[in-house]
UniProtKB/TrEMBL annotation:
This is GNAT family N-acetyltransferase. Pfam families: Acetyltransf_1. The keyword Nucleus does not apply. Signal peptide: none annotated. It comes from Belnapia mucosa. PROSITE patterns: GNAT (PS51186). PANTHER family: PEPTIDYL-LYSINE N-ACETYLTRANSFERASE YJAB.
Length: 300
């Protein structure tokens, strides 16, 4: 099978999303987990495709896609959002070939750091990334809990959560929080979430002052969530979870870093359990992971 590699086109995004679904679910099943990724429209991929700071590549054989890789950049920070190879064509060097091509994007744009999130049980991919200068930095745990149980246990938080005003109104305070917690701004990502992608967009306040933000999906997933230094991370999470319950989901979920001990304490007190382990890899350390919950491995 002869593989060719090229930048993705708009019509590639839907079939590329199917590769992501097939490869992710295949990996879960091979590790004794049920398939969990449902096929949905490539919203974030389509948004990123239109941004010149992003890079999207496909591997192709006989007119059919065999792999998909996609990265985004914000300021000097480069993030590998997805790299998946169609089941049945893995272990043929496609992953390394695609990674080499897409990492040129980081070099050509002067990236000062590179990062990604992958499944912690995906040892083959983790080894691939280490060989390419990306090292494990932070364990991440996807937690889930039945919404009725969470509603029964949650107390009134000491911080208030109110809707975020329409974009670009919140640009400055969101940017300040991102710079303090992550080390860079991601303004267009906030605009993307505030354009109707998130079911709830929450400004977390202390005495009327913004000290954090959280986005909630229609399925009850919390993230990304960021909390300013000095604010109570556990109380911020409580405020975000109460906002998640307002969309009336069957369950609430989130991805919590191992370093976020205050938020882990709150989550386990509310009845959350571990669903899936992830790991953050990067060329060098960055961010305060006691104060940030990523949304998912692609969006961060």
């Amino acid at each position: 099978m002869h593989i060719t590699y090229r930048p993705a086109r708009g019509e590639d995004l839907a079939p590329a999303t199917r590769i992501v679904q097939d490869a992710y679910n295949d990996l879960r099943v091979r590790h004794g987990l049920p398939p969990s990724i449902a096929l949905g429209p490539p919203l974030f991929q389509t948004f990123s495709f239109a941004e010149p700071s992003s890079s999207l590549w496909v591997a192709e054989a006989d007119g059919a896609l065999q792999g998909f890789a996609f990265a985004w950049m914000r300021q000097r920070f480069w993030f590998l959002a997805q790299l998946f190879v169609q089941p049945g064509t893995q272990s043929k060097g496609i992953g390394q070939a695609m990674l080499s091509r897409i990492m040129r994007h980081a070099e050509e744009n002067g990236a000062e750091n590179r990062a990604l999130i992958t499944m912690a049980y995906n040892t083959a991919s983790t080894g691939l990334y280490i060989r390419n200068g990306l090292y494990p930095r932070e364990p991440l745990l996807r937690l889930v809990a039945p919404a009725p149980l969470v509603a029964e246990r949650i107390a009134t938080p000491r911080l208030e959560a109110v809707p975020i005003e329409p974009w670009p109104g919140p640009r400055e305070w969101l940017g300040r929080i991102d710079e303090a917690v992550l080390g860079f701004r991601r303004e267009s990502h906030h605009a993307f979430q505030l354009d109707g992608v998130a079911a709830r967009a929450l400004r977390i306040e202390q005495a009327g002052r913004p000290v954090g933000y959280a986005y909630v999906s229609g399925a009850g997933h919390v993230g990304p969530l960021a909390v300013s230094p000095g604010a109570e991370a556990g109380e911020a999470l409580k405020a975000a979870v109460r906002g998640a319950l307002e969309v009336q989901p069957k369950q609430v979920s989130m991805v919590v870093p191992g370093r976020a001990d205050r938020m882990l304490d709150v989550a386990f007190g509310l009845g959350f359990r571990i669903d899936e382990p992830f790991v953050l890899l990067s060329a060098r350390p960055f961010g305060d992971w006691s104060r940030y919950l990523p949304s998912n491995p692609g969006f961060m």
